[in-house]
Amino acid sequence: MNELYRxxxxxxxxxxxxxxxVVNNYNNQALKGRxxxxxxxxxxxxxxxxxxxxxxGIVIDSDNNQSKQIDIILYDKNILPPSMLTEDEGxxxxxSALVIIEVKSKLNxxxxxxxxxxxxxxxxxxxxxxxxxxxxxxxxxxxxxIFAFDSDLKNKSEYERLQQIVDEENExxxxxxxxxxxxxxxxxxxxSFTMDIS
Length: 198
Known about the structure:
Largest sheet: 8 strands, mixed
Number of helices: 5
Structural class: alpha/beta
Helix content: 25-40%
Order of helices and strands: HHEEEEEHEHHEE
Mean pLDDT: 81
Strand content: 15-25%
Number of domains: 1
Number of strands: 8
Distance between the termini: 20 Å
């Protein structure tokens, strides 16, 4: 990777991690969570093409279905316009949704389960039309990620926990989803500034 670009990314990540430590002192968990969502949005914005929007909200399809509340949605402004409620909150057409990110202060079993359920709510939506790429492939469903500042796991990997929860959710639901198609895990541990990308 180009050293200038790499250093820029590392600088932005360190800045976000530093700011995230400040909110550890917030007593209000909702405010703490929203502040961290904003930090991640601000981390991503400088690296996004101007045609890509970023907000929090829900994703909808043309059959009147909607996702659960999503922490961060990256969407293509050129495919279908969003219905923005505020500058940072919106209703995004499924066809435009590219990436969803769940932001967690501390990843635990309940938070992974909620993230899997949120990802499932996205994966079950249906496009009204399919965008065909130059390669002949059609645009797939949005990529789903968890961005966690910390984890309660000590003895196994987040990927193993994710796989177990996906398997449990698949047993409860008729629509089987592979964990690799549901979520990728990005865990940032501020104390050591290490990235665990599963």
